[in-house]
Amino acid sequence: MGINIIIGYILMFIGAFFFLLSAIGLLRLPDLYTRMQAATKSTTLGAISSIIGIGLMREDILIKSIILATFILLTAPISGSALIRAGYKAKSPMTDKTVVDKFKEKEGE
Question: Among 19, 25, 13, which residue's Cα sits nearest to residue 57?
Answer without folding.
Answer: 13
